[in-house]
Amino acid sequence: MPRHDPVTLALHWLIALLIAAAYAASSQVEDGPGRAWAMNLHGSLGLAVFGLSLLRILWRGFARHPAPVAMPALMARLANLAHVALYVAMVAVPVIGLLALWASGQGLSLFGVVAMPSPMEASRGLGAFLEGAHELAANALVALALLHAAAAIFHQYILRDHLLERMTPGGRA
Ligand code: HEM
Ligand code: HEM
Question: What pLDDT sits at residue 2?
Fold first, then answer.
């Protein structure tokens, strides 16, 4: 089974891990003394997703793609659609999150190193709206990623077309 290149593999799994970590950290962002710390962690993990996703999309233009696995046309279309939606969400969710934070008058300390103060005027209404949109989009991203993972497992173990092995290093998956 031909594989995706090592850069694509590394970015795919690193981004998946960071999305899971950002999602887990979001539940720790609660009012109280630990809020700033948890918010910085959540936002930093999320911005790492943003940066690496841009890199992934850029790299996609240069990488040599293995020929697609044979499947019915409708299934291939749905897979393509899901991949495009994932790429859009991987970029949009962190951007909306950062705008939500800034609009509510807060800044971010990126991994505790780089200060990212809000460049905009605080607006309670806009902040609340963007926060709602961010949470909705983040939940959609995670739901889509779970569906995507289930589809990959279905391909590998039910259809037995070795699809998962395209995204795994080394031996057989
Ligand atoms: C892939 C990246 C991200 C994911 C999956 C994600 C996910 C989430 C989720 C699920 C929530 C709702 C938490 C809850 O109310 O229980 C949330 C809240 C929030 N996120 Fe993100 N987020 C990401 C990136 C970011 C980034 C980059 C920022 C800002 C720099 C950010 C800022 C916020 C803010 C301000 C809230 C509201 C926190 C609160 O006051 O309760 N997020 N995020
Ligand atoms: C947050 C988690 C994840 C995200 C955001 C994500 C995103 C993506 C995207 C955008 C692609 C399309 C690559 C392209 O053709 O341009 C892809 C491919 C792939 N993903 Fe994921 N993925 C995630 C988790 C997983 C998991 C958990 C699995 C396995 C159980 C998986 C298995 C695969 C496989 C096998 C491919 C290659 C499909 C092919 O070559 O046709 N992904 N992923």
Answer: 86
What are the phi and psi torsion angles at 109 (to 5°)?
-105, 105
Bridge partner residues of 116 (DSSP): 108
Question: The pTM is what?
Answer: 0.95
Per-residue pLDDT of 1-60, as tens digits, reads 789 999 999 999 999 999 999 999 999 999 998 999 999 999 999 999 999 999 999 999
Mean pLDDT of 111-127: 97
Map tokens 């996703």 to a residue.
Answer: 53
Alpha carbon of residue 63 to chain centroid: 20
- Please check whether residue 43 is in contact with residue 97, taking contact to mean a CB–CB distance below 8 angstroms: yes
Cβ neighbour number for residue 99 with a 10 Å cutoff: 18
Mutation probe of ligand 1 site: the residue of 102, 134, 139 with most atoms within 8 A of C-beta: 134
**Distance of alpha carbon 47 from alpha carbon 37, whole angstroms:** 15
Are residues 104 and 124 in contact, defined by beta-carbon separation less than 8 angstroms?
Answer: yes
Burial of residue 93 (CB within 10 Å: 0-12, 13-18, 19+) is buried
Residue entry with tokens 């699809």:
163
For the Cβ of 65 lying below 6 angstroms from any atom of ligand 2, the answer is: no
Q: What is the pLDDT of residue 173?
A: 46
